[in-house]
Amino acid sequence: MPRTRMPLGLIALALGAFGIGLTEFVIMGLLPEVAGDFQVTEATAGWLISGYALAVVVGALGLTAATTKLPRKPVLLGLIVLFIIGNVLTATAVTYEMALLGRIIAALCHGAFFGVGSVVAAGLVAPERKAGAIAIMFTGLTAANVLGVPFGTFLGQQAGWRSTFWAISAIGVLAFVGIAFLVTISHEEQEEVHLRHELRAFRSGQVWLSLLVTVLAYGGMFGAFTYIAYTLTEVSGFASSAVPWLLVLFGAGLVVGNTVGGKLADKALDLTLFVFIVALVIVLIVFALFAASQIVTIIALVLMGGFGFGTVPGLQTRIMIYAGGAPTLASGANIGAFNVGNAIGAWAGGLGLAAGLGYTAPIWIGAGITVLAVVVMTIAWGNAHRSQFTTDSQSAGASATAASLAAAD
């Protein structure tokens, strides 16, 4: 019997994605409050972001591989429990180290939830509607950036930063209940991942270049964005109460950039990535130079979100293309690469602050990291073009030889 309506289970999955996205990004708007509470430096507080990102990498690869043969619904529920435990630990932390541990525990579920959840979402609908179902689930992540982060920051500023993590924990509980009662998986065939086959993808130089571009492009943007609350209040002169609403602008740029970048990448993948990354460099440089101007800052926030996140669909598509017939592990590695970039960007930006270079230092450092992404993308694009040219030439030569032999016969 065909399934014509979108099942409610997709809403439960989207709610889980919303909570996970909120956990990852809301800390950026609350970093000054957290640092003040634990009496640590801005750079030390930044490890609450870097530590999370690195733990996502471990969870994306380790937990996904470890749970491959297990029933998917219990796996999702277990991941949500891990998410709740991590956020409750963060909310109740009496020391900085305890808060960092909570962040790491919550992060372990991130990559595995999106990987397993995507498969489950696709299985809830008819085959011709799988892409739409997955898109609905990922709407939760987008909503977390556009709405959740600003309002989570506002809540944390008004009622204390711990209140935000209590609210996130409550979202986790709702997601658990929703998945338990609304997600139905009957007679599911478990697909085994053959690691030896999947590892073949990493023989491709283009896969490694793509991963490096992901790390550098995302790392450059997050080098600037991690400490954005300090830049907005200490350099641009905005009141701390304005930070949540300014983050809405960043989220709006994220949504538009992600949509436009995906459509353009379908038409010209490498060209789109190159243009977007170059544009991101320009935006970051202009932002760093004129951060004292509130008008320039507002425009830069929108464009930074747009060009930064506009690379995401193209980068994910690129690595899947060059992974050939073994895209599963390579795709997971790219999710990890995004978070390695997050960690490197936050760490490098923190070094600039610790060195006393001022609150625009993370933006300059982010621009420098993004320049490296442009260099690597240029190399990757050039190699791909040369490989395609060689392949076309060989094909043309083979066709000409075959034609000559046929004529001789």
From TrEMBL:
Gene3D superfamilies: MFS general substrate transporter like domains. InterPro entries: MFS, MFS_dom, MFS_Efflux_Transporters, MFS_trans_sf. It is a multi-pass membrane protein. The chain crosses the membrane at residues 47-68, 75-94, 100-126, 133-153, 165-186, 207-230, 242-261, 268-289, 295-315, 336-357, 363-384. It is found in: Cell membrane. The keyword 4Fe-4S does not apply. This is MFS transporter, DHA1 family, arabinose polymer transporter. It comes from Brevibacterium siliguriense.
